Structure formats: structure tokens, C-alpha cells
Amino acid sequence: MTLKKEIEFNNIVNDILKNKEFIALKYEIHHGISRLDHSLNVAKVTYQTCKKLKVKNYEEITRAALLHDFFKNDEVTNKAFLNHPAISLKNAQDNFNLTKKQANIIESHMFPFTSVMPNNVGSFIVTSADKFVALYECVKFKAPIKVGASFLFILNLCFIQR
Ligand SMILES: [Fe+2]
Ligand SMILES: [Fe+2]
Fold it and tell me: How far is the CA of 128 from the centre of ligand 2 (A)?
């Protein structure tokens, strides 16, 4: 990322990164790294994708991308895979003012595993960015990837890119 973009990105997410509840995600393990770092990776890929595609509301989308996994492990049940988007949305709404689009971005980011469908371009960008980043992190940091989940990730990518 260029310095100019780095500065703009930091200005967009600055207040989120100062929030105590959110900072606590650095103690949660996610794909072999901290959930804070994973969220930042997804937000950066989202920001750069929005810029490339000239998406106008890139600030709104980038902020939602950063908040997409705003949950702690002890807040979810053993079905975290399915229920963490709803918990992340609640935590994000408790701490920040969200638009309807941002709410959908967070709620639908596990598409197609959850029943909430992406309903705007930001949601499609974030759910794709999350899968690319997750796969990259799992491989790079040797976090366990279930074969089935990997297969579904690939299917999902193919589906989204059509
Ligand atoms: Fe997630
Ligand atoms: Fe994620």
C-alpha cells in the first residue's frame, strides 16, 4: 500500500483501533494469528479492492470489514462458525454507529454458510476478501484447515466471482 493510502486507511479506522473492546481481539487466536491482525488484513484487502473498483462508499465498507469478526471466543457456542456474525454485529452496534449496509456486511460475511444474504457490493467484497485472507493465513501460519471447509471456500469463491 502506498504511504498516501496507508494514511487514508488509518484515518478511516483510527477510532475503531482505539476502542478497548476491539483492541482486546489481539488476545484471541484466529487462523494462527490474532483476531485483531486478521481483521486488519481483511480491512486492508477490502480497502484496496474498493479503491481498484472505484467503489464510492469505500470508507463505510472498510470500517465494516474491520468489524466483521468483532467477537471473543467465550461469547460463541461450539457453532461459532455459524453464530459469530450475529455476535460480531451486536458488538459492533454496541460500540459504533452502523449503517444498514455495514450491518449486512457483518451479518453476511460467512455467506453461503449463513442464511443472511449479501445485499450490497460491500458485502460481496468483504465476504470474498475474508475468504482470500483466511485461506492465506491458514496456509502461511499453518493453522488447521478442514478439507470440507476449504472445498466450500473454493466453491464460494467461484460462485461469487461469476
Ligand atoms: Fe468471520
Ligand atoms: Fe474473518
Answer: 10
